[in-house]
Each structure stands twice: as C-alpha cells, then as structure tokens.
Automatic annotation (TrEMBL):
This is Transporter. The chain crosses the membrane at residues 6-24, 36-60, 66-84, 104-121, 127-143, 188-208, 251-270, 276-295, 307-331, 368-394, 401-422, 428-445, 452-469. Keywords: Membrane, Transmembrane, Transmembrane helix.
Length: 470
C-alpha cells in the first residue's frame, strides 16, 4: 500500500543528505542534527515551545537508549586502568610472548591476541594492554613497529569492533536504529566480518612482506604525543602499584577464566544483547573492586571511585558527539511518536519505513544496488573518525532499502555496520589511529596509508559476499 509522504518525511530526508554532506567534508554534524530535530518538532507540534523542548527530550531519549553501551565501555575502561597500574596485564600476556619467534608469528600472534582482548575489553583499552607488553617482543624478532600497529588496528579496531560479539555495543546500536533484534544483526554480520577480516589481514601481511623484500618499506617511526587513548588520561598521575608475584599471577589467571565463564553462561542461558552486556559489565565491576582493594589496601574504597570516574569520563567523551546524532536518527522510528505525538499520516509505520515504501514505488532496486549503497554510506559516515556515529545512520537507511526490496534487512544493516566501523573505528582515519600509533611510536598518517588498500579490498569482497547472502 502506498504511503502519503508529508512535510515531516521530506524534511527528515533533506537533513539526512545534509548530514552525509558534512561527513564527506569532514565537518561536525552536531549543529545540523539539532537543527533537524528542531525543524521536525516545529512541523509536528506547530509550536515553538514544543520544538525547543523536543531537542532536550530527544537527547534524553537517545541517552537512555545508549546508556547500556556507554556504561559497559566505561566500566571496561575503568577495569583496564587498574590492570595497567598493577601490571596484571603484563602477567596475563607474558606466557604468549614465547610463541612470537618470527616476524610472521609476531604479526599474526599480536593480531589474534589483540582481537580476543578487544572482544572482552574493547579495542582502545586493548591497545594499551597488549601493545605495551608485546611490542618490544615483536620488534626484537624482526617485526617492524608499523607492522605491529597494523596488526593491532586490523584485528582490534577492525575485526573485533565491527563484530563486537561479547560486549555487543555496536550491533545493539545498529539493530535499534534499524528496528531489528540484536541477534539477527549479529548472525548476519558473522560471515561478513570473517570475509572482511581474512581479506584485509592477509593482504596487509602480504604487502608488508613484499615491500620489505623490494626495499620499499617505510617504518614511519615518529614520537606521537597527545594520545587520546583511554588509558593515557591520568597515567602520569598514578604511580605503579606493587603486588606480590604470586597474587599477580593468580589474578592474571582468574580474570580470563571469569570472562570465559561469562561466555559459557551466554551460551547455556541463551543470553544476548542487554543481558549478555550486563553479565560482562557486572563481572568487570567485581574484578575492578576486588583488584583495587587488594592493590590499594586502606585507600581501596576511594580508589574504586577514582577508577570508575576515569572510565565514565572516557565513556561520555566518546559518546558525547554521538548523542545528538542518535537523537536525530531515533526520530526516524518510534521516538518521533513518543516525543511529538501521533502526527504522521494515517497508516504510517515511522518516517524511515514510509520512505522505504515510497522508494520501492518509484525506484527499481535490487540486492546488488542496496549492498553497494550501504557499503558506500557506511564508509562515508566513518570519515568523521567515529564508527559509532556512522552506524546510527546505516541502520535507518538499511531499513529503507530492505523495505523497498522486501528482503535483506539484517544483512544490509550488518554490512553498513562493518563498513562504518572499519573506516571510522580506527583503521583508516588518522586522528582515530592515534592510540595505536602512540603505543607503537609510528605516524598515524603512515599507518592509515598502509591500511588503505587492504581495507578497500576487504570492503569490495565483503560487499560482493553480501549480495549473495541477501
């Protein structure tokens, strides 16, 4: 059945175009998102007070929707901080260093360790946890520092973050934006993440070895200052805390086992989405409290709060720019009716769904066109260096295309998520690469240049695979 589009639909579409234009030009989108919310509120309520109040209420709505994601990342960062201060992170990965005997083993070893660590701790803390310990070992066996940075980027900010199967922050955002269950997006993303990961990491390794043989390899070594990594903040203010070797070793064994038990519990109890995130988050809080009390003794009570504050500061710093963007795009679904009342035309199923139906009535679409479009949009939205702001856009657009071609909603959503995070989450945009570049002492611009061809080849291969999966 054809849907009659109103001025609200057209204004929403116009602002999507504005936002994408700003992203392409690498400009901030906060003001345009707030303007869009104001304009939609004015059309819906026909009152100045209603539209102004709608700005604040949409921020509150977006914050409530994002709160579990903000919370889990903040808690993980806080826990990672105490692991760094006590040196438990070094003890955790020390046994693995004996396997890094050649440059190839160092590349794949650091990458796989980074991937696993990132799944549980998120990539930014994982860079500090893994890089500080394994980088000297890798360089000693002949792997260039830039090669180690590539491995950490591609496996951590690429493979682990684009799937995010343990913390489930990324799939929750895209699933909510597209109006889909988190489980469906995660299942659809699995083959795409595998293809993307294999193509990029193998290509990057082959190109590195080729350039080393041909004498065209550039190390890109530089002193990178001003790291924006979560564990750099306040690092100079906290002296290392001494713990007995036996206690440190016991905790280094217990922590991975606890998270492994969480994974087992997820499968046995069929926990997904918010329930799985809550289990990981609660475990991280208990680990943080236990280690802080053991490490700081009489000051433990105060230090627990201090570490949590560090984590929350980082969490809201990361998601501060995301909230206004999320506030606008949530209006494309049920948030509009909740905030401004049922003012859409009769038979409407939300702004985004209505646009998708209208698109199907006027434009011949197919799976191939949809896949290429979602990859391009995901890559464009990643140009601001924040993969999380991009996935809030690909969700509604994937929903529009799926409504138009009557299939592939989960696959298109997952494809947009993969493209947005690989480009903007820390593999191609120089200012998003600073934490890994700082740890390895290389230029973020040289690191982005080395990642460019592998990532572009990976996106092409993943898009083709997505066409067959729809």
């Amino acid at each position: 059945m054809s849907i009659q589009l109103s001025a609200v639909h057209w204004v929403y579409l116009v602002f999507i175009v504005f936002i994408m234009t700003l992203l392409i030009r690498r400009r901030d989108t906060t003001m345009i998102c707030v303007t869009g919310i104001f304009a939609l509120g004015l059309l819906a309520t026909s009152t100045l007070s209603g539209s102004v109040s709608g700005i604040f209420n949409s921020f509150v709505y977006a914050t409530k929707e994002l709160m579990s994601t903000i919370m889990i990342i903040s808690i993980i960062v806080a826990m990672s901080r105490i692991l760094m201060v006590t040196g438990i992170n070094e003890t955790m990965v020390a046994p693995l260093t004996r396997f890094l005997r050649t440059p190839a083993m160092a590349y794949w070893g650091i990458g796989l360790i980074m991937m696993v660590t990132s799944l549980f701790f998120w990539p930014s803390p994982a860079v500090a946890l893994v890089g500080a310990v394994l980088l000297p070992v890798a360089v000693r066996v002949g792997l260039p520092a830039l090669g180690a940075a590539m491995a950490m980027n591609l496996f951590g900010h690429g493979i682990a973050l684009s799937g995010d199967y343990i913390i489930q922050g990324a799939p929750k955002l895209t699933a909510d934006a597209a109006g889909l269950p988190v489980s469906s997006v995660m299942e659809a993303s699995l083959p795409l993440v595998i293809v993307m990961g294999l193509v990029t990491t193998v290509t990057a390794f082959w190109m590195m070895r080729r350039d080393q043989r041909n004498g065209t390899w550039r190390d890109g070594l530089v002193s990178v200052k001003g790291s924006s990594g979560p564990l750099s903040a306040g690092a100079e203010d906290t002296a290392p805390v001494l713990m007995s070797p036996g206690l440190k070793k016991g905790l280094a064994i217990a922590i991975p086992l606890l998270f492994l038990l969480d994974v087992v519990a997820m499968f046995i109890l069929d926990l997904q989405g918010g329930d799985a995130t809550a289990l990981v988050g609660g475990t991280a809080v208990l680990i943080l409290i236990t280690i802080t009390l053991l490490a700081h003794h009489n000051q433990g009570l105060e230090k627990i709060t201090s570490y949590l504050i560090e984590g929350f500061v980082f969490g809201f710093k990361v998601f501060g720019p995301v909230i206004p963007i999320a506030a606008f795009f949530y209006l494309g679904d049920s948030a509009f009716t909740e905030l401004f009342g049922n003012t859409l035309p009769g038979g409407s199923h939300g702004i985004v769904n209505d646009l998708g139906v209208a698109l199907a009535d006027h434009v011949p679409l197919n799976g191939a066109v949809g896949a290429v479009t979602l990859t391009a949009i995901g890559a464009i939205t990643g140009l601001d260096g924040s993969g999380f702001s991009g996935i809030l856009l690909v969700g509604p657009i994937a929903q529009m295309f799926a409504a138009a071609i009557h299939s592939g909603a989960a696959t298109l959503t997952a494809l947009g998520q993969v493209a947005a995070i690989w480009v903007g989450g820390g593999t191609l945009i120089p200012w998003a690469l600073i934490p890994a570049a700082a740890i390895c002492g290389v230029s973020p611009f040289e690191l982005a240049r080395r990642n460019l061809k592998p990532v572009l080849l990976g996106l092409s291969a993943t898009t083709i695979v997505a066409m067959f999966l729809m």
